[in-house]
Amino acid sequence: MKNFSRNSKIGWAMLIAGIGIAMELLLNWRLFVPLLIGCSLIYYWKSYRNRDSKKIYLIIGVSLVLIPFISTVVFKIFIISAAVFALIQYSRTKNQPKKMIIETIPPNQKSKINKKIPYIKNTLTGNQRIFNEIFEWDDINIQCGFGNTIIDLGMTMLPPGESIVLIRGLVGNIQLIVPFDASVTINHSAISGKLSIFNQEQELLNSNVIYYTDGEDDSASRKIKIITSVVFGDVEVRRT
């Protein structure tokens, strides 16, 4: 039998948890009755014409739906299991960061592609390594769940103008290596962590920081706008 991938296992776990929660709600009248009342209030909210008290039905209805849902034993077990799984995956990848060395070719100006799949994809856990792969440059927009991430743009052939790199992470460190001749703008948000930009370090606690390079870089033909956000982790931006 073919082994399931990590994403398939996560999908099956969510499906089983959903079925278990639904069965527990149906078999436990103490949870099912508030759920039924909440659904009725939400349905009544859609058809209610009085705007002044319309929001009250929505708030009460959503509360009566959510409280039974999060009160189920299956939901609590699923949350605890997910937290333990995330910690295990993070401990495995902590010392093995995802390193992406990016090399691109000039974009095809004659191409009439309306939709395509980005080369760099989201990763929840685990490692993603890209070495000596050549592809047409696209703005980077990825989410990295748990683990460290390294993106090397040092050998990248960026097109003239502004290129965007958007990275969101939950727990882990992010390192970006940018070309020496590119102007850089950084917008970083973090709950807790350290921000290091060209050897300038700053401790952050529930903060948002916008960093601009020196005014002399305004004449640069290649510009990189970096937007990063992490819950817990450090972010480093350095030149090649």
Automatic annotation (TrEMBL):
Q: Where is the Cell wall-active antibiotics response LiaF-like C-terminal domain?
A: 126-237
The membrane-spanning stretches of this chain are: 12-45, 57-90
| Record's GO cellular component terms | membrane
Q: Which UniProt keywords apply?
A: Membrane, Transmembrane, Transmembrane helix
Recorded protein name is Cell wall-active antibiotics response LiaF-like C-terminal domain-containing protein
Which domain of life does this protein belong to? Answer: Bacteria
Organism of derivation? Siminovitchia acidinfaciens
The UniProt entry, under InterPro entries, shows: Cell_wall_LiaF (IPR016975), LiaF-like_C (IPR024425), LiaF_C (IPR047793)
Q: Which Pfam families match?
A: LiaF-like_C (PF09922)
